[in-house]
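User: Show me sequence and structure for the first protein, then do the same for the second.

Assistant: Starting with the first protein.
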Amino acid sequence: MRCFRFLLVASILAAATAVLGVPIRGDEAAGPIRVLAWNIWNGGDEAKNEPSPARKIEKQKRVAEAIRASGADVVAMVETYGSGETIARELGFHFHPRGTNVSILSRWPIKEDLSVYKPFHCVGALVEAPDGRRLAVYSVWIHYVDDVWTDPHSRDGRTPADLIAKDGPSRVTEVRAILDGVTAKTAALTNATVIVAGDFNSNSHLDYTEAARDQYGLVVDWPVTRTVAEAGFRDAYRVCNPKVDRKKDRTWSPRSPDQIQDRIDFVFWKGDALAPRSATMIDQAPGRWPSDHAAVLVEFAAP
C-alpha cells in the first residue's frame, strides 16, 4: 500500500509538471526541506543604490543564482529593498514581503500570512510542502545599539557585563515581543515546525563560551540569543555544528575581513515534526559574493 501511494503521488506530481509547467524538485515529496537565512545587503550587493537599471538587475540576478545554487526551498530574506520581486521571479518562487526590509521567498505557495510585530522587523508566513509538511516561517531583523561586532577596537577595555549592558534592553524587548507574537500566532497550528530566522545583529551566547575563550577572548552571555533560547527555540546551526569554529561559523562579514568576524545571522526552530540534519555557512558564489553577510543554510528532515 505504501508503495502504491508513493507511485500515485509521483504520477500526480509528474502530471502537474507537464500540465502547469511548474518546476518540481524530484526529492521534495519526501526529502529534506532547506531553509536559507540571508541579509542580501541593500537589495543585493547594494542594488538599492545602483543608478544603472541594467546593473541593478544584474546584481539581483546574482543573488537569485546564489539562492538557486544553495538548493533552498524557503528563504528568510533581510534588506530586501525592492529586489524581492525580481529575485523571486528569477527563481520561480512565491514572494511574501512586509514593509521594505524583511520578506519570505518560497518554492511552494504561501498559505497564510502569520506576521507579527512591526513591518520593518518581522514577516511571517505559513508554507506547506507538497507532501503536507507545514512550516511557520518568520524572517526577522533586530536593530543594534552598540557597535560590538564591527569596529575591531569596540571591545577594548570592556568587560562582559559592559558588553551585555550596552547590547541594549531595547533589543531584548524587541526580540521578546516578536517571539511572544510568534507563539500566540502559531499556537493553533498542529504539526507545524516554527522557524524564526534572519539577521539578529547579535553575537551568540552559544559561541562565547568557556570552551571557545581562546577564539573570542571573552565569555559573554549575549542577551538576544539567550532570550530566543529561553522561549524554547533552538539554534539549528549550533545543533549541527556543536564545536565552535569562529572562522567557519562567522556570517559577518565576508566583505569586511578587517572587521570583527562573528556569527550574527541565525535559523532558530521549534517543533518535533522536523529537525535539522545539516547546517552550513555560505559565502562563495561565481564572481564576487553579493552581500556583506554570509548566508545560513539549514536542511530539515523528519527526526
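Switching to the second protein now.
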Amino acid sequence: MSLKKKLLVLSATCLLSAAATAARADGLSDLKAALARLPGQSPVKALVEAKTWSRQGEGKEQEEQNGQASILLEDSPRGLQLLFGKDLLARLEVEERAREKDPKAKTPGLAAIREVNASELRPMISAAGNLTRAMEKAIFKTEKTETYNGKPARLLSFEIPVDKLTEKERKYVKKFEGSLDIWIAADGTPIASRMHQAISGRAFVVISFETKNEEDLVYGLSGDRLIVIKKETHNSGSGAGEKGEMRVTKTLQLQS
C-alpha cells in the first residue's frame, strides 16, 4: 500500500474513532435519558436514620448538640406514610419535658426529628425529579472519565449561577460560587452527586456574612425509582458576631 493510501486509511480510522468516542461521550444526554426511565412509581419501603451534629457560638458560649432518630417510611398507591416508633415518641416526650425544665438540656431526638419529615424524605425516594430540577438551574461545563469508589464512571460538572438565588438574596450578595458534580454509570444512571455553594456579602450596610453549603448524595435503584441511599449535608456560616455549623447524615435502607 502506498504512503498516500496508508495516510488516507489512518485518517479515516481516526475520524471513525473520534466519532464513536463523541457518541459515547455525551454523558448529559445519557443522564437525561436515564432519569426519564425512572418515573418513581413503584412502591418502596425503607428504614431511614438521621444523625445530626451542630455547633453554635464560640469560646465559653459555644454549644454543641448531637441528634439521632430513625423511622420507617412507605410510599405506595395510598401515598407517603411515615411510621414513628413508640420508643422514639416516648423519647421525644421525655426530651420535651426536660427542655421545659432546662432550656439547655440535651435533646438528641428533637434535634434530629425535623430531618425525617415528609418534605425532607420525599426527594430521597423520588430523586430523579429533584436531580432534574437541580440540573435545570445549572450550566453544564465539562465531562470526563473518572472512577467512583474504584469503579469506572463519568463525571459531569456544572456551574450554578447566582441567578439561582432569589432577587432579594442577590441584593446582599457580593460573591457567589456554586458547582454541581454528578457521577454517572456507562448507561447514564446517576451514581452520586455533590453540590457546593459559597456565599459572602453584606446586609444593612454594616453586617458582613459568609455561608458555605455542601451536599453529597449517593444513589441507588428500587424498581423504577432513583433513590438516595445516603445524604450528607454540611452547612456553616458567620455574621453579626455569630458563628454556626451543622452536619446531617441520613441513610436509607430498603425493606422487603
